[in-house]
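dumping the sequnces here before i forget
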Amino acid sequence: MLIALLADVHGNREALTACLADAERAGADRYVFLGDLVGYGADPAWVIDLAAEMVAAGAVAVLGNHDAAVLNPSETMNAVASAVIAWTRTRLNEAQRSFLARLPLTVEEGARLFVHASASAPDTWIYVMSSREAFQSFRATHHRLTFCGHTHFPALFNESPRTLPQHHVPADGRPIPLLGQRRWLAVLGAVGQPRDKNPAACYGLFDDVDNRLTYVRVPYDVELAARKIRKAGLPEFLATRLTMGI
Amino acid sequence: MAKAQLTAGMTIDGFRLDERLHRGGMADIWRASRNDIDFPIVLKVPLLDFEGDISLIVGFEVEQMIMAELKGPHVPRWVANGDFAVQPYIVMEQIAGPTLAKSLGRTWPLDEIVETGAQVAAALSDLHQQDVLHLDLKPGNILFRLSGAAVLIDFGLSRHRHLPDLLDEQFHRPMGTTEYMAPEQLLRVRSDQRSDIYALGAILYQLATGRLPFGIPARMRQVRRRVWRDPVPPRALRPEIPAALQEIILRCLEPMPAARYAGAGDLMFDLRHQDLVVLTERAERMQQSDFRTVFARRLRAGKIMRQIHASATKPPPRAPIILVAVSLRPEIEEVRQALLEAAASVLANMPGARLACINVMPASLIAIDENIDAAGDNVHVQRLVELRNWAAPLELPKGKITYHLLESRNIAAAVVNFARSNKVDHLIIGAPTSTGSFAGKVRGKVSAQITAEAPCTVTVVRAAGESNRLREVEPAA
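..and the predicted 3d for all of it:
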């Protein structure tokens, strides 16, 4: 089975469309949304509708902090993010809100755990940026493979018997064997708002037969996504950062 | 973790254990078989003593991970990995031994040393191109196919540039085989391909002189000594060693990575074309550095180690080889001029590149004269002079340009073979401007065949035609 892992779409229709087309070409037969369907981007309703349709057809989706913030105004966020959340709320209908409300924090599937942020406390949205957070996440779960997002920086950690987990920055498009005797924590980059200085959308392809994970970069129409953000009257910075990948 | 004794006749995941071939300190090697596999295979099982060294376990994980990624004639073909939870193993193609370590006990003829070194360099170059550094190259890890191609084994300390380095953060001590280890490995640098060049230099030294360049350090700390103590020059031990071969060996063994060959391809090129090696003081050295020099170096050892670290963590400049095939037939002066311009522009885009100019002479040209030797020689000299003359406007320094004459009836095959056996990066050839003439068509076929079969990028250059003065350049992958 080839699983497409899509984290942090953030209402970016162009990026999601490009990633899904790429995954389909690669032969993906299962789709997992790792949280944050909305926030920042100009097409939250369209993205939710597509995700809902795919979930109805068997895809998996977990809740992200931006999704939760749409439902619950008490979620803490920075000023720009909460401005966009307030705007997003006005764009969603009841069905779309209720789809978000039904999303679970985690989904377990055999050896795999899908979660938006650290597995150590999924509802407190801890960023897994370094070995220390990865260590806490490993400690909180018995799953061999944890797939998460939230940081917008692609990273891969493996558990080590003696030291803190090892931090590896994956190369684009190179399959990495997730050796069976180790536990792995994969932080997928962001589909809809990459921040690692590469504006191309990032998603993951995991082959559960030969146990390989590939971080895929997909160029998409960034300019169009940025124009839509400006047209919607959202903060200019959100448009600029998309084009720069920061 | 299974601790069951493995015995002949047992079956693991469909692989039948036929016979134990080797019992090593770290792993057993079994000859194995499975019905659907039609080449000889071995099954390597680690001897994992869990009270013991954890690096053995991680090393085996590394080998499983890296072997599954490797392809080509210079590594055993990988078949399967066994899960640690049940029974860890690696199944791979069996390469008939013995290893190079078994043939160290004799005096090697010089041409055999050079050929063996070139084969190992070719294997290293292939490995490096697959983004893998061996980092434990030694005679015991080198085998040969019947074709002569070297096969590298034992990737337990290796590093794949694009995969997590499981060995890097776990262990805070250097790993490797002290006799062949580069000084930067003492500093735990695991990212420099020139560490493998150093090891190959130590192997070449051993083949040439019958002894190790730095003896057998009993402890890792003693490896440091090679930073200030240079080896006895090979020619002092065996006078018939040519200056060029000593130059090559000692260049590999330079403590500073930047002073060694940048890539295994360059090393192979020099081994195969020793007449073109630029000789330095290293070639003439007949004794080790004197006491004062060594003592001064020793006092500065800390600083030198820091410089080595800095050099090893800076990627080597790429030194690509550009091959230009020059036809010397007088009537195509315009093509030659176009070739010259194309070579200049490719060189301008590849700083550090080396230009190899070749001319293929039909074997028949020499056979015309009864007195093959004398006549052949004359033709050679004449052609070499013409080649140099052609390249003169490029004003390349010695060492950045080389000249080669090939003799063959099949021009295209000769060019392609040269490109392949010298790991050429970019090939530039001329082709006739299409005029519809018979001769033009024949020569066009040569460039078409080269373009189709070359192992690298090819630029085909044509002289501007009468009606169209634009130069046509068609790159091909």
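Residues 110-129 of chain B form the longest helix (20 residues).
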